[in-house]
Protein backbone atom coordinates (compact mmCIF):
# COMPACT_ATOMS: atom_id res chain seq x y z
CA UNK A 1 0.00 0.00 0.00
CA UNK A 2 1.26 3.46 -0.89
CA UNK A 3 0.36 6.20 1.57
CA UNK A 4 0.63 9.93 0.78
CA UNK A 5 0.86 12.75 3.31
CA UNK A 6 -0.46 16.10 2.02
CA UNK A 7 0.52 19.03 4.22
CA UNK A 8 -1.65 21.84 2.90
CA UNK A 9 -2.30 25.47 3.78
CA UNK A 10 -6.08 25.87 4.16
CA UNK A 11 -7.92 29.14 4.72
CA UNK A 12 -10.42 29.25 7.56
CA UNK A 13 -14.04 29.01 6.28
CA UNK A 14 -12.97 28.93 2.61
CA UNK A 15 -14.64 25.61 1.90
CA UNK A 16 -14.52 26.06 -1.87
CA UNK A 17 -10.82 26.89 -1.92
CA UNK A 18 -9.94 24.18 0.57
CA UNK A 19 -11.95 21.57 -1.34
CA UNK A 20 -10.12 22.47 -4.53
CA UNK A 21 -6.76 22.15 -2.80
CA UNK A 22 -7.69 18.76 -1.34
CA UNK A 23 -8.86 17.52 -4.75
CA UNK A 24 -5.69 18.79 -6.46
CA UNK A 25 -3.42 17.01 -3.98
CA UNK A 26 -5.55 13.87 -4.21
CA UNK A 27 -5.14 13.89 -8.00
CA UNK A 28 -1.37 14.20 -7.61
CA UNK A 29 -1.32 11.29 -5.16
CA UNK A 30 -3.53 9.20 -7.44
CA UNK A 31 -1.18 9.89 -10.38
CA UNK A 32 1.68 8.58 -8.21
CA UNK A 33 -0.38 5.40 -7.61
CA UNK A 34 -1.02 6.10 -3.93
CA UNK A 35 -3.81 4.06 -2.33
CA UNK A 36 -4.46 6.50 0.52
CA UNK A 37 -3.85 10.22 1.00
CA UNK A 38 -3.86 11.83 4.44
CA UNK A 39 -4.65 15.51 5.10
CA UNK A 40 -4.20 17.54 8.34
CA UNK A 41 -6.57 18.17 11.21
CA UNK A 42 -9.50 20.43 10.22
CA UNK A 43 -8.08 20.63 6.67
CA UNK A 44 -11.55 21.09 5.22
CA UNK A 45 -12.36 24.26 7.17
CA UNK A 46 -9.03 25.56 8.48
CA UNK A 47 -7.77 25.73 12.06
CA UNK A 48 -8.57 27.28 14.49
CA UNK A 49 -12.08 28.39 13.50
CA UNK A 50 -12.79 29.60 17.06
CA UNK A 51 -16.39 30.75 17.54
CA UNK A 52 -17.22 29.85 13.95
CA UNK A 53 -17.42 26.36 15.42
CA UNK A 54 -20.52 27.59 17.27
CA UNK A 55 -22.26 28.66 14.04
CA UNK A 56 -24.68 25.94 12.88
CA UNK A 57 -24.32 27.03 9.24
CA UNK A 58 -20.54 26.60 9.49
CA UNK A 59 -20.99 23.04 10.74
CA UNK A 60 -23.57 22.30 8.05
CA UNK A 61 -21.05 23.45 5.43
CA UNK A 62 -18.44 21.12 6.98
CA UNK A 63 -20.78 18.17 6.62
CA UNK A 64 -22.04 19.14 3.15
CA UNK A 65 -18.46 19.55 1.92
CA UNK A 66 -17.28 16.22 3.34
CA UNK A 67 -20.11 14.41 1.53
CA UNK A 68 -19.30 16.23 -1.71
CA UNK A 69 -15.62 15.35 -1.36
CA UNK A 70 -16.47 11.70 -0.67
CA UNK A 71 -18.69 11.46 -3.75
CA UNK A 72 -15.93 12.83 -5.99
CA UNK A 73 -13.06 10.67 -4.63
CA UNK A 74 -13.88 7.10 -5.70
CA UNK A 75 -10.44 5.86 -6.78
CA UNK A 76 -8.28 6.73 -3.78
CA UNK A 77 -8.82 6.60 -0.04
CA UNK A 78 -8.81 10.02 1.67
CA UNK A 79 -8.40 10.84 5.36
CA UNK A 80 -9.32 14.44 6.08
CA UNK A 81 -10.05 16.50 9.20
CA UNK A 82 -13.31 18.43 9.63
CA UNK A 83 -16.04 19.24 12.19
CA UNK A 84 -19.01 16.90 12.61
CA UNK A 85 -22.20 17.02 14.63
CA UNK A 86 -22.41 15.18 17.96
CA UNK A 87 -25.35 12.79 17.52
CA UNK A 88 -25.52 11.85 21.18
CA UNK A 89 -28.14 13.45 23.44
CA UNK A 90 -25.55 14.94 25.79
CA UNK A 91 -22.33 16.94 25.54
CA UNK A 92 -20.98 19.63 23.25
CA UNK A 93 -22.77 19.90 19.91
CA UNK A 94 -19.79 19.00 17.66
CA UNK A 95 -16.71 16.79 17.40
CA UNK A 96 -13.25 17.51 16.05
CA UNK A 97 -13.29 14.68 13.53
CA UNK A 98 -11.43 12.80 10.83
CA UNK A 99 -13.19 10.95 8.03
CA UNK A 100 -12.00 8.11 5.85
CA UNK A 101 -13.52 8.61 2.40
CA UNK A 102 -13.60 5.52 0.21
CA UNK A 103 -15.59 4.38 -2.81
CA UNK A 104 -17.71 7.50 -2.94
CA UNK A 105 -18.83 7.60 0.69
CA UNK A 106 -17.75 8.37 4.25
CA UNK A 107 -16.51 4.92 5.29
CA UNK A 108 -15.36 5.72 8.82
CA UNK A 109 -15.44 8.58 11.33
CA UNK A 110 -12.93 9.12 14.11
CA UNK A 111 -13.31 11.83 16.78
CA UNK A 112 -10.54 13.50 18.76
CA UNK A 113 -10.13 12.17 22.30
CA UNK A 114 -7.83 14.67 24.01
CA UNK A 115 -8.96 18.31 23.74
CA UNK A 116 -6.25 20.86 24.60
CA UNK A 117 -7.18 23.88 26.69
CA UNK A 118 -3.78 25.56 27.21
CA UNK A 119 -2.10 28.51 25.50
CA UNK A 120 -3.84 29.22 22.15
CA UNK A 121 -6.07 26.13 22.42
CA UNK A 122 -9.59 26.10 23.82
CA UNK A 123 -11.07 23.00 22.24
CA UNK A 124 -13.11 21.85 25.24
CA UNK A 125 -15.14 25.03 24.73
CA UNK A 126 -16.41 23.69 21.41
CA UNK A 127 -15.92 19.94 21.02
CA UNK A 128 -17.16 16.74 22.63
CA UNK A 129 -14.35 14.18 23.06
CA UNK A 130 -14.50 10.71 21.52
CA UNK A 131 -16.19 7.97 23.51
CA UNK A 132 -14.25 5.16 21.81
CA UNK A 133 -10.97 4.83 19.99
CA UNK A 134 -10.87 1.76 17.76
CA UNK A 135 -8.80 1.05 14.64
CA UNK A 136 -10.56 0.66 11.28
CA UNK A 137 -9.78 -1.47 8.23
CA UNK A 138 -8.66 -0.15 4.85
CA UNK A 139 -7.35 -2.42 2.09
CA UNK A 140 -6.71 -5.22 4.56
CA UNK A 141 -4.78 -3.09 7.08
CA UNK A 142 -6.03 -2.04 10.51
CA UNK A 143 -5.33 1.66 10.94
CA UNK A 144 -5.09 3.49 14.22
CA UNK A 145 -6.14 7.08 13.48
CA UNK A 146 -5.60 9.85 16.04
CA UNK A 147 -5.91 13.63 15.92
CA UNK A 148 -3.14 16.03 17.02
CA UNK A 149 -3.30 16.25 20.85
CA UNK A 150 -4.06 12.53 21.04
CA UNK A 151 -0.33 12.03 20.39
CA UNK A 152 0.73 14.40 23.21
CA UNK A 153 -0.87 12.51 26.10
CA UNK A 154 2.47 12.12 27.92
CA UNK A 155 3.22 15.85 28.06
CA UNK A 156 3.26 17.60 31.42
CA UNK A 157 2.14 20.94 32.76
CA UNK A 158 4.74 21.58 35.42
CA UNK A 159 4.86 18.43 37.57
CA UNK A 160 1.43 17.16 36.45
CA UNK A 161 0.57 15.03 33.45
CA UNK A 162 -2.17 16.62 31.36
CA UNK A 163 -4.02 13.40 30.52
CA UNK A 164 -4.70 9.92 31.84
CA UNK A 165 -5.59 8.36 28.49
CA UNK A 166 -3.18 7.18 25.78
CA UNK A 167 -5.35 6.98 22.63
CA UNK A 168 -2.51 5.79 20.42
CA UNK A 169 -1.37 3.06 22.79
CA UNK A 170 -4.97 1.86 23.04
CA UNK A 171 -5.24 1.58 19.25
CA UNK A 172 -1.99 -0.38 19.12
CA UNK A 173 -3.30 -2.79 21.76
CA UNK A 174 -6.51 -3.21 19.75
CA UNK A 175 -4.51 -4.54 16.81
CA UNK A 176 -3.59 -1.54 14.65
CA UNK A 177 -1.06 -2.29 11.89
CA UNK A 178 -0.35 1.39 11.16
CA UNK A 179 -0.53 4.50 13.33
CA UNK A 180 -1.69 7.79 11.77
CA UNK A 181 -1.89 11.21 13.39
CA UNK A 182 -3.42 14.20 11.60
CA UNK A 183 -2.44 17.48 13.15
CA UNK A 184 -2.62 21.25 13.27
CA UNK A 185 0.43 21.73 15.50
CA UNK A 186 1.55 25.39 15.61
CA UNK A 187 5.13 26.50 15.22
CA UNK A 188 7.08 27.48 18.34
CA UNK A 189 10.82 27.92 18.24
CA UNK A 190 12.62 24.61 18.91
CA UNK A 191 9.31 22.72 19.07
CA UNK A 192 9.97 20.43 16.13
CA UNK A 193 12.75 18.59 17.96
CA UNK A 194 10.30 17.75 20.74
CA UNK A 195 7.62 16.84 18.20
CA UNK A 196 9.90 14.39 16.39
CA UNK A 197 10.84 12.72 19.68
CA UNK A 198 7.18 12.24 20.63
CA UNK A 199 6.16 10.75 17.29
CA UNK A 200 9.27 8.56 17.16
CA UNK A 201 8.51 7.27 20.66
CA UNK A 202 4.99 6.20 19.59
CA UNK A 203 6.43 4.17 16.72
CA UNK A 204 9.19 2.63 18.83
CA UNK A 205 7.02 1.86 21.85
CA UNK A 206 4.24 0.24 19.81
CA UNK A 207 6.57 -1.32 17.19
CA UNK A 208 4.45 0.10 14.36
CA UNK A 209 5.10 2.55 11.52
CA UNK A 210 3.85 6.03 12.37
CA UNK A 211 2.51 8.56 9.82
CA UNK A 212 2.26 12.18 10.98
CA UNK A 213 0.56 14.82 8.78
CA UNK A 214 0.77 18.43 9.95
CA UNK A 215 -0.78 21.62 8.63
CA UNK A 216 1.31 24.40 7.10
CA UNK A 217 0.73 28.16 6.71
CA UNK A 218 -0.47 31.08 8.80
CA UNK A 219 -3.92 31.69 10.29
CA UNK A 220 -4.12 34.99 12.17
CA UNK A 221 -1.53 34.85 15.00
CA UNK A 222 -0.63 31.18 14.53
CA UNK A 223 1.82 29.74 12.02
CA UNK A 224 2.00 26.03 11.17
CA UNK A 225 5.36 24.74 10.03
CA UNK A 226 4.40 21.47 8.33
CA UNK A 227 7.32 18.99 8.49
CA UNK A 228 5.00 16.02 8.20
CA UNK A 229 6.98 12.84 8.69
CA UNK A 230 7.02 9.04 8.73
CA UNK A 231 8.77 6.75 11.22
CA UNK A 232 9.42 3.03 10.87
CA UNK A 233 8.51 0.52 13.58
CA UNK A 234 11.85 1.15 15.31
CA UNK A 235 11.10 4.86 15.60
CA UNK A 236 13.56 5.89 12.90
CA UNK A 237 12.72 8.84 10.64
CA UNK A 238 12.30 7.60 7.06
CA UNK A 239 10.61 10.55 5.33
CA UNK A 240 10.06 14.23 6.14
CA UNK A 241 8.18 16.95 4.28
CA UNK A 242 9.41 20.51 3.81
CA UNK A 243 9.25 23.17 6.50
CA UNK A 244 6.88 26.13 5.98
CA UNK A 245 5.82 24.93 2.50
CA UNK A 246 3.00 22.85 1.13
CA UNK A 247 4.31 19.42 0.25
CA UNK A 248 3.30 15.91 -0.74
CA UNK A 249 5.31 12.87 0.32
CA UNK A 250 4.55 9.24 -0.52
CA UNK A 251 5.73 6.11 1.27
CA UNK A 252 5.29 2.52 0.13
CA UNK A 253 4.26 0.59 3.23
CA UNK A 254 5.56 -2.68 1.80
CA UNK A 255 9.00 -1.19 0.97
CA UNK A 256 9.75 1.39 3.60
CA UNK A 257 12.66 3.72 2.79
CA UNK A 258 15.92 3.58 4.72
CA UNK A 259 16.29 5.97 7.69
CA UNK A 260 17.04 9.56 6.68
CA UNK A 261 18.54 12.56 8.42
CA UNK A 262 16.17 15.14 9.85
CA UNK A 263 16.15 18.61 8.33
CA UNK A 264 18.49 20.84 10.29
CA UNK A 265 17.35 24.46 10.36
CA UNK A 266 18.86 27.03 12.70
CA UNK A 267 16.55 28.63 15.23
CA UNK A 268 17.00 32.04 13.62
CA UNK A 269 16.23 30.66 10.16
CA UNK A 270 13.12 28.99 11.57
CA UNK A 271 11.90 32.23 13.13
CA UNK A 272 12.54 34.14 9.92
CA UNK A 273 10.54 31.58 7.91
CA UNK A 274 7.70 31.68 10.44
CA UNK A 275 7.50 35.48 10.28
CA UNK A 276 7.55 35.54 6.49
CA UNK A 277 4.84 32.86 6.37
CA UNK A 278 2.75 34.76 8.92
CA UNK A 279 2.98 38.07 7.03
CA UNK A 280 2.32 36.47 3.64
CA UNK A 281 -0.71 34.46 4.70
CA UNK A 282 -2.26 37.16 6.90
CA UNK A 283 -2.24 39.60 3.98
CA UNK A 284 -3.33 37.09 1.34
CA UNK A 285 -6.10 35.54 3.44
CA UNK A 286 -7.37 39.01 4.39
CA UNK A 287 -7.17 39.90 0.67
CA UNK A 288 -4.99 42.96 1.25
CA UNK A 289 -2.58 43.73 -1.55
CA UNK A 290 -0.01 46.13 -0.05
CA UNK A 291 1.60 47.27 3.18
CA UNK A 292 3.07 50.49 4.56
CA UNK A 293 5.97 50.57 7.02
CA UNK A 294 7.15 53.62 8.93
CA UNK A 295 10.94 53.72 8.54
CA UNK A 296 12.71 55.39 11.45
CA UNK A 297 16.21 54.39 10.38
CA UNK A 298 16.30 51.94 13.30
CA UNK A 299 16.68 48.19 13.30
CA UNK A 300 13.07 47.21 14.11
CA UNK A 301 11.41 49.04 11.22
CA UNK A 302 14.21 47.96 8.87
CA UNK A 303 13.68 44.31 9.80
CA UNK A 304 9.88 44.50 9.38
CA UNK A 305 10.31 46.11 5.97
CA UNK A 306 12.85 43.52 4.82
CA UNK A 307 10.62 40.63 5.99
CA UNK A 308 7.62 42.18 4.24
CA UNK A 309 9.53 42.38 0.96
CA UNK A 310 10.50 38.69 1.23
CA UNK A 311 6.91 37.76 2.09
CA UNK A 312 5.05 39.92 -0.43
CA UNK A 313 7.48 41.19 -3.05
CA UNK A 314 8.94 44.68 -3.34
CA UNK A 315 6.03 46.02 -5.43
CA UNK A 316 3.64 45.58 -2.51
CA UNK A 317 5.72 47.36 0.15
CA UNK A 318 6.02 51.11 0.73
CA UNK A 319 8.46 52.64 3.20
CA UNK A 320 7.64 55.99 4.78
CA UNK A 321 10.19 58.19 6.54
CA UNK A 322 8.64 60.79 8.85
CA UNK A 323 11.52 62.76 10.36
CA UNK A 324 10.99 65.29 13.14
CA UNK A 325 13.26 67.99 14.54
CA UNK A 326 14.70 65.30 16.85
CA UNK A 327 15.54 62.82 14.07
CA UNK A 328 19.25 62.44 13.51
CA UNK A 329 20.71 62.85 10.05
CA UNK A 330 21.99 59.28 10.30
CA UNK A 331 18.47 57.92 10.86
CA UNK A 332 17.14 59.77 7.80
CA UNK A 333 20.03 58.49 5.66
CA UNK A 334 19.58 54.93 6.93
CA UNK A 335 15.85 54.92 6.11
CA UNK A 336 16.57 56.04 2.54
CA UNK A 337 19.39 53.51 2.18
CA UNK A 338 17.15 50.65 3.30
CA UNK A 339 14.46 51.61 0.79
CA UNK A 340 17.09 51.78 -1.96
CA UNK A 341 18.58 48.40 -0.98
CA UNK A 342 15.12 46.82 -1.06
CA UNK A 343 14.12 48.73 -4.23
CA UNK A 344 10.75 49.70 -2.75
CA UNK A 345 8.57 52.78 -3.14
CA UNK A 346 9.64 55.39 -0.60
CA UNK A 347 8.05 58.57 0.75
CA UNK A 348 9.61 61.18 3.03
CA UNK A 349 7.05 63.24 4.94
CA UNK A 350 8.60 65.55 7.60
CA UNK A 351 6.30 65.93 10.61
CA UNK A 352 7.76 69.12 12.16
CA UNK A 353 5.04 71.42 10.73
CA UNK A 354 2.30 69.12 12.06
CA UNK A 355 4.05 68.81 15.41
CA UNK A 356 4.32 72.58 15.71
CA UNK A 357 0.61 72.90 14.91
CA UNK A 358 -0.21 70.48 17.71
CA UNK A 359 2.02 72.38 20.12
CA UNK A 360 0.33 75.65 19.18
CA UNK A 361 -3.16 74.19 19.60
CA UNK A 362 -2.29 72.69 23.01
CA UNK A 363 -0.23 75.65 24.23
CA UNK A 364 -2.82 76.95 26.70
CA UNK A 365 -3.44 73.49 28.14
CA UNK A 366 0.20 72.43 28.43
CA UNK A 367 1.65 75.85 29.30
CA UNK A 368 3.81 75.92 32.41
CA UNK A 369 4.24 72.16 32.67
CA UNK A 370 7.59 70.55 31.91
CA UNK A 371 7.59 68.61 28.64
CA UNK A 372 7.16 64.87 29.23
CA UNK A 373 5.94 61.75 27.48
CA UNK A 374 2.59 63.38 26.63
CA UNK A 375 4.29 65.87 24.30
CA UNK A 376 6.78 63.32 23.02
CA UNK A 377 4.05 60.84 22.10
CA UNK A 378 2.28 63.41 19.94
CA UNK A 379 5.02 62.82 17.36
CA UNK A 380 4.40 59.08 17.36
CA UNK A 381 0.65 59.66 16.94
CA UNK A 382 1.22 62.06 14.04
CA UNK A 383 3.23 59.32 12.33
CA UNK A 384 0.50 56.78 13.01
CA UNK A 385 -2.06 59.13 11.42
CA UNK A 386 0.05 59.61 8.31
CA UNK A 387 0.61 55.89 7.83
CA UNK A 388 -3.06 55.11 8.33
CA UNK A 389 -4.07 57.82 5.83
CA UNK A 390 -1.77 56.35 3.18
CA UNK A 391 -3.01 52.83 3.86
CA UNK A 392 -6.66 53.94 3.75
CA UNK A 393 -6.15 55.79 0.47
CA UNK A 394 -4.66 52.74 -1.26
CA UNK A 395 -6.55 49.95 0.46
CA UNK A 396 -3.43 48.70 2.21
CA UNK A 397 -2.40 47.82 5.75
CA UNK A 398 0.13 49.33 8.13
CA UNK A 399 2.66 46.95 9.65
CA UNK A 400 3.66 48.07 13.13
CA UNK A 401 7.31 47.69 14.01
CA UNK A 402 7.57 47.30 17.79
CA UNK A 403 9.25 44.23 19.30
CA UNK A 404 8.28 42.02 22.25
CA UNK A 405 10.74 43.65 24.64
CA UNK A 406 9.13 47.07 24.13
CA UNK A 407 5.57 45.76 24.15
CA UNK A 408 6.20 43.82 27.35
CA UNK A 409 7.04 46.91 29.40
CA UNK A 410 4.79 49.39 27.54
CA UNK A 411 7.64 51.19 25.77
CA UNK A 412 5.31 52.05 22.88
CA UNK A 413 2.62 54.61 22.05
CA UNK A 414 -1.05 53.76 21.70
CA UNK A 415 -2.45 55.15 18.43
CA UNK A 416 1.12 55.99 17.44
CA UNK A 417 3.76 53.38 16.70
CA UNK A 418 1.18 50.74 17.76
CA UNK A 419 -1.22 51.78 14.97
CA UNK A 420 -1.64 49.17 12.27
CA UNK A 421 -3.14 45.86 11.24
CA UNK A 422 -0.34 43.39 12.02
CA UNK A 423 2.63 43.48 14.40
CA UNK A 424 5.18 41.04 12.95
CA UNK A 425 7.78 41.50 15.73
CA UNK A 426 5.44 41.60 18.74
CA UNK A 427 6.63 38.13 19.83
CA UNK A 428 10.28 38.76 18.90
CA UNK A 429 12.62 39.95 21.71
CA UNK A 430 15.10 42.70 20.88
CA UNK A 431 18.10 40.38 21.06
CA UNK A 432 16.43 38.13 18.46
CA UNK A 433 15.76 41.20 16.30
CA UNK A 434 19.54 41.68 16.07
CA UNK A 435 20.03 38.01 15.13
CA UNK A 436 17.41 38.26 12.39
CA UNK A 437 18.92 41.47 11.04
CA UNK A 438 22.32 39.80 10.74
CA UNK A 439 20.68 36.86 8.96
CA UNK A 440 18.94 39.22 6.51
CA UNK A 441 22.38 40.69 5.73
CA UNK A 442 24.06 37.29 5.32
CA UNK A 443 24.70 37.62 1.57
CA UNK A 444 24.70 41.40 1.14
CA UNK A 445 23.95 44.52 3.13
CA UNK A 446 20.21 45.12 3.05
CA UNK A 447 19.71 46.63 6.50
CA UNK A 448 22.31 49.42 6.85
CA UNK A 449 25.02 48.39 9.25
CA UNK A 450 24.59 51.60 11.23
CA UNK A 451 20.94 50.66 11.91
CA UNK A 452 22.24 47.51 13.58
CA UNK A 453 25.17 49.01 15.51
CA UNK A 454 23.79 52.33 16.76
CA UNK A 455 22.14 52.62 20.18
CA UNK A 456 18.35 52.11 19.93
CA UNK A 457 16.34 55.32 20.28
CA UNK A 458 12.74 56.47 19.83
CA UNK A 459 14.13 59.94 18.91
CA UNK A 460 11.21 61.77 20.53
CA UNK A 461 13.45 64.15 22.49
CA UNK A 462 17.05 65.37 22.20
CA UNK A 463 19.73 62.65 22.56
CA UNK A 464 17.18 60.06 23.64
CA UNK A 465 18.28 56.43 24.08
CA UNK A 466 16.16 53.38 24.96
CA UNK A 467 18.47 52.67 27.88
CA UNK A 468 17.47 56.00 29.45
CA UNK A 469 14.15 54.32 30.29
CA UNK A 470 14.92 50.60 30.09
CA UNK A 471 17.60 48.21 31.32
CA UNK A 472 20.02 47.10 28.59
CA UNK A 473 18.29 44.55 26.35
CA UNK A 474 20.74 41.73 27.23
CA UNK A 475 19.50 42.17 30.82
CA UNK A 476 15.85 42.89 30.06
CA UNK A 477 15.16 40.04 27.62
CA UNK A 478 16.13 37.14 29.94
CA UNK A 479 13.93 38.56 32.71
CA UNK A 480 11.00 38.95 30.30
CA UNK A 481 11.45 35.41 28.99
CA UNK A 482 11.62 33.97 32.50
CA UNK A 483 8.45 35.73 33.63
CA UNK A 484 6.27 35.65 30.49
CA UNK A 485 7.28 32.33 28.90
CA UNK A 486 8.44 30.27 31.88
CA UNK A 487 5.94 31.87 34.30
CA UNK A 488 8.61 32.39 36.96
CA UNK A 489 8.01 34.76 39.87
CA UNK A 490 10.31 37.22 41.63
CA UNK A 491 12.10 34.61 43.73
CA UNK A 492 12.87 32.27 40.83
CA UNK A 493 14.15 35.08 38.60
CA UNK A 494 16.21 36.69 41.37
CA UNK A 495 17.98 33.36 41.92
CA UNK A 496 19.34 33.70 38.37
CA UNK A 497 21.45 36.63 39.55
CA UNK A 498 19.20 39.61 38.76
CA UNK A 499 18.62 42.32 41.41
CA UNK A 500 15.28 41.86 43.13
CA UNK A 501 14.39 45.54 42.78
CA UNK A 502 14.97 45.39 39.03
CA UNK A 503 12.91 42.20 38.63
CA UNK A 504 10.07 43.69 40.66
CA UNK A 505 10.11 46.90 38.64
CA UNK A 506 10.00 45.06 35.31
CA UNK A 507 7.18 42.79 36.45
CA UNK A 508 5.17 45.83 37.52
CA UNK A 509 5.74 47.47 34.15
CA UNK A 510 4.53 44.32 32.41
CA UNK A 511 1.32 44.42 34.45
CA UNK A 512 0.74 48.14 33.88
CA UNK A 513 1.09 47.78 30.11
CA UNK A 514 -1.63 45.14 29.78
CA UNK A 515 -4.22 47.71 28.66
CA UNK A 516 -1.96 48.72 25.78
CA UNK A 517 -1.45 45.15 24.62
CA UNK A 518 -5.20 44.53 24.67
CA UNK A 519 -5.46 47.21 21.95
CA UNK A 520 -2.44 46.05 19.94
CA UNK A 521 -2.69 44.50 16.45
CA UNK A 522 -2.40 40.74 16.06
CA UNK A 523 1.13 39.38 16.26
CA UNK A 524 2.85 36.30 14.84
CA UNK A 525 3.46 33.70 17.52
CA UNK A 526 6.97 32.19 17.69
CA UNK A 527 7.39 31.62 21.45
CA UNK A 528 5.73 29.32 24.01
CA UNK A 529 3.82 32.33 25.36
CA UNK A 530 2.99 35.24 23.07
CA UNK A 531 0.82 38.24 23.81
CA UNK A 532 -2.62 37.77 22.31
CA UNK A 533 -5.11 34.94 22.28
CA UNK A 534 -2.89 32.57 24.28
CA UNK A 535 -2.22 34.90 27.23
CA UNK A 536 -5.16 36.09 29.34
CA UNK A 537 -4.36 38.62 32.04
CA UNK A 538 -6.92 40.96 33.66
CA UNK A 539 -6.40 44.70 33.17
CA UNK A 540 -8.28 45.99 36.22
CA UNK A 541 -6.49 44.31 39.13
CA UNK A 542 -4.48 44.85 42.24
CA UNK A 543 -0.75 44.23 42.37
CA UNK A 544 0.42 41.41 44.61
CA UNK A 545 3.94 42.60 43.75
CA UNK A 546 3.43 45.51 46.14
CA UNK A 547 3.41 43.02 49.01
CA UNK A 548 6.45 41.11 47.83
CA UNK A 549 9.53 41.48 50.08
Summarize the amount of helix as a percent range.
25-40%
Lateral arrangement of strands in the main beta sheet: 5-4-3-2-1-16
Please give the oligomerization state of what you see.
single chain
Q: Tell me the count of domains.
A: 2
Q: Which word captures the global form?
A: elongated
CATH architecture of the largest domain: 4-Layer Sandwich
- Count of individual helical segments: 17
What does this structure look like?
By secondary structure, the protein is of the alpha/beta class. It has two domains: 2-263, Carbon-nitrogen hydrolase (Nitrilase/N-carbamoyl-D-aminoacid amidohydrolase); 271-470 and 516-529, Rossmann fold (3-Layer(aba) Sandwich), CATH 3.40.50. It is built from 17 helices and 20 strands. The strands form five sheets. It has a six-stranded mixed beta sheet, with helices on one face. A six-stranded mixed beta sheet has the order 6-7-10-11-14-15, with helices on one face. The termini are far apart.
Set down the secondary structure blueprint:
Blueprint: E1 2-7, H1 15-31, E2 36-38, H2 56-72, E3 77-85, E4 94-102, E5 105-111, E6 136-138, E7 141-147, E8 156-157, E9 160-161, H3 167-173, E10 178-183, H4 191-206, E11 210-214, E12 216-219, E13 222-225, E14 229-231, E15 237-240, E16 247-252, H5 267-285, E17 291-294, H6 299-312, E18 317-321, H7 329-342, E19 345-348, H8 352-361, H9 363-366, H10 373-394, E20 397-398, H11 404-409, H12 430-440, H13 449-453, H14 473-485, H15 490-494, H16 500-512, H17 514-518
Parallel strand pairs: 1-2, 2-3, 7-10, 10-11, 17-18, 17-20, 18-19
Antiparallel strand pairs: 1-16, 3-4, 4-5, 6-7, 8-9, 11-14, 12-13, 14-15
Helix pairs in contact: 1-2, 5-6, 5-12, 6-12, 8-10
Amino acid sequence: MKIALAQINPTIADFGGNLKKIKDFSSRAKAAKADLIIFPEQALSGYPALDLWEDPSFIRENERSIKKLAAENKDIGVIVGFSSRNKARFGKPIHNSAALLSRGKVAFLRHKTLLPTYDVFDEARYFEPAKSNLPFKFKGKKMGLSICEDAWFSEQNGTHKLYRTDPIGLQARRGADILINISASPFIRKKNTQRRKIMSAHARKNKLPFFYCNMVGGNDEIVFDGRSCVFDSRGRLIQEAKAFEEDLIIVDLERLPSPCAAQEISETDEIKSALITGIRDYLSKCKISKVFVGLSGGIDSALVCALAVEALGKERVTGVSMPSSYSSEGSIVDAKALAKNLDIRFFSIPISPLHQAYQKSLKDILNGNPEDAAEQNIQARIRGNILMALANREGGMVLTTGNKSELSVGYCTLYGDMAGGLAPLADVPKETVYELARLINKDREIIPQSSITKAPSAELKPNQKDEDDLPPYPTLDPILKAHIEKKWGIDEITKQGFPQSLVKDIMKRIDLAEYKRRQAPPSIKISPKAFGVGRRIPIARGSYLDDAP
